[in-house]
């Protein structure tokens, strides 16, 4: 009787120690998965062309939103659905334009960095970061302390600085509605384009006319 209780206590203790150990020795050589929903303000720099982006990531609803402005340029909206349709538009006070684009990739899953190659730690932008390289196209820097992304760099040199990272922030449904002229235009003219969105939706401007460098 006593030994059964002892065994049980021992088992519980062992389980506790095991669980405790396995969480406290979480694998820091793997990037933290992205939260299912977040909002980030990003600053991008491609060869001195600067862009500010409001980035809304909404995996449960299968959508992401890039609201971005090149330096002294116009405000642009890129609303991408997991079915690979993107609405790329401008609104008042700028001209009302819209392009409906089809891409060959959908929204990045939260674990998109899975399998990245760990490169060790580096000091970057005042943070001590764990650094990974993924598929020969991106370097990814994550703050060692908070495990939030600090920046990522594409191999073509474009660098994205993460200025805010609001875990769980969700943009209201009403804001995910593309303007009506997106739909009328798509019907009136067979202007839907099939594009290749490079680098998993994080770097789409090469695919889009009037993108990064032209404004
Ligand atoms: C942007 O990147 C270029 C290198 O491509 C660098 O010379 C420049 O200082 C950067 N500008 C800013 C504001 O980070
Ligand atoms: C993808 O989803 C969006 C939002 O529901 C919709 O407007 C669009 O027509 C869909 N695209 C396709 C090809 O079904
Ligand atoms: C808006 O449209 C007008 C008329 O087509 C054009 O002249 C003007 O350059 C456009 N402005 C922008 C910012 O695209």
TrEMBL record:
Keywords: Signal, Transferase
Record's signal peptide: 1-26
Residues annotated as transmembrane: none
InterPro entries assigned to the protein according to its UniProt record, in alphabetical order: At4g14100-like
MF annotations from Gene Ontology: transferase activity
UniProt-recorded name of the protein: Transferring glycosyl group transferase
């Amino acid at each position: 009787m006593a030994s059964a209780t002892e065994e049980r206590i021992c088992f519980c203790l062992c389980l506790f120690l095991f669980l405790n150990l396995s969480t406290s020795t979480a694998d820091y050589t793997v990037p933290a998965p992205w939260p299912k929903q977040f909002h980030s303000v990003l600053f991008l720099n491609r060869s001195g062309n600067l862009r500010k982006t409001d980035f809304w990531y909404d995996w449960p609803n299968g959508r992401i939103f890039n609201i971005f402005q090149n330096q002294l340029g116009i405000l642009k909206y890129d609303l991408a659905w997991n079915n690979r349709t993107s609405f790329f538009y401008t609104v008042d006070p700028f001209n009302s334009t819209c392009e409906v684009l089809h891409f060959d990739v959908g929204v990045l899953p939260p674990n998109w960095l899975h399998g990245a190659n760990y490169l060790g730690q580096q000091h970057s932008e005042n943070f001590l970061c764990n650094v990974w390289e993924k598929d020969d196209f991106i370097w990814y820097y994550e703050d060692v302390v908070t495990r939030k992304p600090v920046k990522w760099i594409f191999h073509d040199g474009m660098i994205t600085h993460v200025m805010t990272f609001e875990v769980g922030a969700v943009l209201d449904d009403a804001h995910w509605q593309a303007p009506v002229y997106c739909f009328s235009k798509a019907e009136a003219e067979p202007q839907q384009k099939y594009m290749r969105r490079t680098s998993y939706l994080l770097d789409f401007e090469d695919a889009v006319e009037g993108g990064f460098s032209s404004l």
